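debug: dumping io for the single-chain case to check the tokenizer round-trip. Nothing else runs in this session.
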Amino acid sequence: MTGTRPPIVEEIQATGSELLQVVKNIVRAGNVRRIVIKNGAGRTVLDVPLTAGVVGAALLPFWAAVGGVAALAARWTIVVEREAGPPAPIPH
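debug: decoded output
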């Protein structure tokens, strides 16, 4: 019997100054299905689904959006939804 396993969801705390670098490291780690960025009050500011194989110029609008929201608050929560399977380590 085959079925889909639920995604792995993890939360990472970051400051405004480190938000962009942390998100870049998450994307580089691979197998990311979706990234949600929440402000200090828990309100979703950016919710981006990522497809496998998206690289380079296709991510430019995403990086611009992350860089833009980074200046809006001091504390951020990054919710990372990954494909089920062995977790890739997130470089900090």
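debug: round-trip ok. The longest helix spans residues 19-29.
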